[in-house]
Amino acid sequence: MASSNRTFSLTFLVMLSALSFHFSNAHFVLPVVKDNTNSKYSYYTSLLVGNHHPSRVNLVIDLSNKWSWFTCDFFGYNTTSHGVPCHTPKCDRYAPLAPCSDGICVVDAYTPSSNFIYSNNLLEDTTKVYKQIQQNSLTQLSNVNLPNFPFTCGDNVPLKGLSPHTKGVVTLARVHVSLHSQISSTFKVARKFALCLPSSSPTSSGYNGAIYFGGSPNYLSKSLITTPLVINPNSTSPIYSPGDSSVEYFIKVKSIEIDETPIRFRSSLLSFDIKEAVGGTKISTMDPYTVLHSEIYKTLINVFITKATVMKMIRVASVAPFGACFSSKSVVNDAKTGPKVPIIDIIMDGKSPLFARWRIYGANSMVKVSDTVMCLGFVDGGLKPTTSIVIGGKQMEDNLVEIDLETSKLGVTSSLLHLGTSCSKFKGI
Ligand SMILES: *[C@@H]1O[C@H](CO)[C@@H](O)[C@H](O)[C@H]1NC(C)=O
Ligand SMILES: *[C@@H]1O[C@H](CO)[C@@H](O)[C@H](O)[C@H]1NC(C)=O
């Protein structure tokens, strides 16, 4: 286990140096791995934690948690962490009104897999990130210390539901303690990060997913389609105080089209209903597939099936949790965009309604459930979900999804597949 991790990290460095000229705008980077177990929490990064003898810990990428947490008793963690003292400006900023235990600030972490909340000390330790360094005309990547990375610890209970490869989560939510906030404030780079979630596990040739901090690679930033980020006035976290807004990333969706035909549902589902504290659209790395309010889901499935029938796709029995499955033999495969199926467009708020479209081709809409069956990778969220549209991992894979907190925009490279480009060029170099 430990030695295979080491092989990966070495490969990663070699890969990065080989193609680092692509990163001229991205200042810091971490690898992203797609889990090969059947855990729901499939995307994780790998951090080195500790000062002199750092240990490697794999953490699920979470855009919603208020805290990063991991089990601190994992094998090999030679802790050099220290608690954040109570009544200090830092404790007040990270965790306002936090209780105090033995002079250390106490925080509440949420563990989605076991739906469990536990309180523990707020700790800090050094972690490492890969930084781009310009030397003459060459760009190199090297390991740099990110001191005082904040997190909290749990025992093994919260790990239930997580893959055996991971020991906790790292948060990228809109909070001071998130990894991107820490990188931006420590290294004085733009408050931006971008996810390139991989669609497959790493191979011997390296990682095929990444998180970029401080900016996105030049070759990708020019194909970003952007929409304003919006604040959900109502918290979506199980831990909140009255008046708290959500720490997740919401966007305004105007409509959904299938092969350019808008699907019909109550448009009020797309806005925030502050009386009930529901509604809106967010992105989530903790949901493997996009989860839709039942009313949206049902029309999406129906229109998709109608359009698919016209394309001579043959419907077969559904395989849970999906509601529309097809015989793979009846679907042609396109080398770039995946299975040739009706195209789903999420029409987002944006200056040009024609271009603020998040285009979802077969590669991001169809899930292969067996050698002979593929299903539309959207799931029914029931009639009372907190959020009407939760854009999940499958729909983001191999696209760059950038959160720019400087301009308050979400960008997505939804034309990437069509152009035959990858958001991470680590593979096969
Ligand atoms: C743990 O850290 C201490 C102090 O830095 C060091 O002397 C020791 O060798 C480390 N142990 C391991 C197992 O890395
Ligand atoms: C949602 O947020 C608004 C604005 O802060 C607030 O007035 C409203 O009471 C909240 N709704 C619920 C159900 O808490």
Topology:
Elements: H1 2-19, E1 28-31, E2 33-34, E3 43-49, E4 55-62, E5 69-71, E6 82-83, H2 89-94, E7 100-101, E8 104-111, E9 116-135, E10 138-154, E11 168-171, H3 179-187, E12 192-196, E13 210-213, H4 218-221, E14 225-230, E15 250-251, E16 253-258, E17 261-262, E18 272-273, E19 278-279, E20 281-283, E21 290-292, H5 294-310, E22 315-316, E23 325-327, E24 333-334, E25 338-339, E26 344-348, E27 357-360, H6 362-365, E28 366-368, E29 373-376, E30 378-380, E31 389-391, H7 393-396, E32 400-404, E33 409-412, H8 416-419
Parallel strand pairs: 4-11, 5-10, 20-31, 21-30
Antiparallel strand pairs: 1-9, 1-13, 2-3, 3-4, 5-11, 6-9, 7-8, 8-9, 9-10, 12-13, 12-32, 14-15, 14-33, 15-20, 16-17, 16-26, 18-19, 21-31, 22-23, 23-29, 24-25, 26-27, 28-29, 32-33
The protein binds 2-acetamido-2-deoxy-beta-D-glucopyranose (2 copies).
Keywords: Signal
InterPro entries: Aspartic_peptidase_A1, PEPTIDASE_A1, Peptidase_aspartic_dom_sf, TAXi_C, TAXi_N
Organism: Spinacia oleracea
